[in-house]
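As the work plan foresaw, our protein records have gained a structure token line. A representative record is set out beneath this paragraph:
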Amino acid sequence: MTHPTGWGLIGASNVAREWIIDAIRAQPGSDVRGVLSSDAGRGAAFAEANGIAYHTTSLQDLLSRPDIDAVYISTNNRLHFEQTIAAARAGKHVMCEKPLALSVDDASEMVRVCRQSNVVLGTNHHLRNAATHMAIHGLIEDGRIGGLIAARLFHANFLAAALQGWRVNDQGGGVILDSTIHDIDTLRFLFDENPVSVFAMTQSGRLAQDGIEDGIMAVLRFPGDVLVQIHGGYTTPFSPGGVEIMGERGIIIGRDCMSQRPIGTVSVRDGEGEHDIPLKHHNLYHRAFALFTAAIHGDGRPAATGEDGVASLGIALALRESARTGREIGINLP
């Protein structure tokens, strides 16, 4: 069923240009009607390059447009809170980049105001939309490898110069809130659980400044005494991303599966050898925006909800606190 949906982009960002405009336009009847940038010249150039009719530097002007039903927010992390609240109170549905905010209290307030305003709030955690992780989730749920024992997830790469900026020189950036938060959401999706405690050690100084982390090793304890290791970083070229889930009867192996691109393989290794799991890859963002579009028209829910965004943020901030204090931190989510 076609659901015409007009979108506004809050932020003339690289991710909007590379992935999101295409994902919106892939939904029948949907299009981008306007873009907001704090820099008028950047906004004008972005609009012209991407076939967007309207651009502005005023959030109020964008939100007052009746042809805009939903907004995608990809501005600096510290702006997400006030922009989401304003959009919700203007009656616009919100797909927001992670992290939703810089505190759990602010993120929880975003969820509350969106619910009160009767608009849908989604968090753009794209990895749970990957064919690889959907297959891994199904294998765990079906008991293919028996009871879970441990896991490891590796998501370290080299951050391109064009993407460094705020990620390595702003207190709202750093690898934990930019990248590891995706790993956290992926693990929550795979296990259908939140961890009960976390411990982390971080690196800084190879790319990042002023103590902002550019590498992390973390351990998360999930219910059932399942231990999970995460390695994340901005400074390791040529490293593949992947996940291994260890169970009582075998291991699930996901290779090259921590990417925005629809790539990667999944296999199961057990007493009979290693077996490839058939996959049908699809565009991760197309699926995310298809589910979000359906949700705002009353059918289902986003792939990652606002509540998912609150949980991933709370766990990410606990990792930061653990790295700062050297202590294992218990997880207590609202």
